């Protein structure tokens, strides 16, 4: 990132739905201040809260493919074709030079529209098991960037590159936790179920929290906004929030996280060197969260429990054991940090620059 004056290069970023898709794209956009960026998303998703104050947001209607082929699949394909035409029009009228996408449903029309116009597309896949759209459409992209080295196995060898997953810039500098008044010396447990929260995980955390609080810890619990019992536990050292903006400050301060295993949070836990107990979302497509979590467990950065096997007693005991063992937590923190790719956003931004400049070797841009 040298010259920050807008170059007139127009880039469309297609990222939608969850924090796991949006934040890596936002982190990469931060590294492209010289580009004129506009965003493609869906009207009722998280991007409508996160994006418009930074970039113009265009929305289209898209949904995922069904597992079984039937009438509904035909309807979805018909809608997909409509979305492709809409994105083609947007790309042409806006004179965009290329597309960056972080996968998911929005990626399909974005990739198909851009490639049909001969524009370069950089696709980032953050999960250990690539999603359906990535598997089908990676072959059409100029470059495919992946979050885990293992992800590359299922993708076109010559154009796939491991860059890690970008995190927002606050994660890479000390960020104070100013809006939460937590005494500096107390152990802090952070409970997080991804950007939307996780009701089953919330229940487990609330069942265990009284014992953790009694042991002297504070708990910050990010519940999401759809848990009807989110405020059922009252304690002066227990803070329940539907969503918290300063995740960087929170994870840097945390002694331990109890978390789902979305690629975004895992990457952030690595960058902040936060030990974790991971409980993968059991219904994630192709169980990708278990595969994501495996990388953390493999180096000893975290413990992984399947939700179906985990009782509140087990979770309570495991957390208490770690609370009382700062040396172990320090080792785990060190191992978590060993997984961090701190310049992932710069690497992905570089791929975008190269692709739009048509200098990608082995690619089709
Ligand atoms: C349920 C599900 O299928 N989730 C998927 C979704 O991510 P999902 O958004 O559920 O979870 P991730 O862990 O990937 O990302 C969560 C993001 O939201 C942020 N955050 C969270 C809570 C909060 O209060 N404030 C906040 O800023 C986190 O810092 C992180 O950046 O896409 C990811 C990337 O494809 C997948 O790996 C996840 O499996």
Automatic annotation (TrEMBL):
Domain Glycosyl transferase family 28 C-terminal: 192-348
Chief site of localization: membrane
Membrane topology: Peripheral membrane protein
Any Pfam family hit: Glyco_transf_28
The enzyme's E.C. designation: 2.4.1.227
Pathway: Cell wall biogenesis; peptidoglycan biosynthesis
Catalytic activity: di-trans,octa-cis-undecaprenyl diphospho-N-acetyl-alpha-D-muramoyl-L-alanyl-D-glutamyl-meso-2,6-diaminopimeloyl-D-alanyl-D-alanine + UDP-N-acetyl-alpha-D-glucosamine = di-trans,octa-cis-undecaprenyl diphospho-[N-acetyl-alpha-D-glucosaminyl-(1->4)]-N-acetyl-alpha-D-muramoyl-L-alanyl-D-glutamyl-meso-2,6-diaminopimeloyl-D-alanyl-D-alanine + UDP + H(+)
Domain of life: Bacteria
Record-annotated Glycosyltransferase family 28 N-terminal domain positions: 12-145
Localization of this protein: Cell membrane
Any one Gene Ontology BP term: regulation of cell shape
Annotated keywords: Cell cycle, Cell division, Cell membrane, Cell shape, Cell wall biogenesis/degradation, Glycosyltransferase, Membrane, Peptidoglycan synthesis, Transferase
GO cellular component: plasma membrane
Ligand binding (UDP-N-acetyl-alpha-D-glucosamine): 18-20, 127, 168, 195, 289
Molecular-function GO term, any one: UDP-N-acetyl-D-glucosamine:N-acetylmuramoyl-L-alanyl-D-glutamyl-meso-2,6-diaminopimelyl-D-alanyl-D-alanine-diphosphoundecaprenol 4-beta-N-acetylglucosaminlytransferase activity
Xref: PANTHER family: GLYCOSYLTRANSFERASE (PTHR21015:SF22), UDP-N-ACETYLGLUCOSAMINE--N-ACETYLMURAMYL-(PENTAPEPTIDE) PYROPHOSPHORYL-UNDECAPRENOL N-ACETYLGLUCOSAMINE TRANSFERASE 1 (PTHR21015)
UniProt xrefs under HAMAP family: MurG
Chain's role: Cell wall formation. Catalyzes the transfer of a GlcNAc subunit on undecaprenyl-pyrophosphoryl-MurNAc-pentapeptide (lipid intermediate I) to form undecaprenyl-pyrophosphoryl-MurNAc-(pentapeptide)GlcNAc (lipid intermediate II).
Family label: Belongs to the glycosyltransferase 28 family. MurG subfamily.
Listed name of the protein: UDP-N-acetylglucosamine--N-acetylmuramyl-(pentapeptide) pyrophosphoryl-undecaprenol N-acetylglucosamine transferase
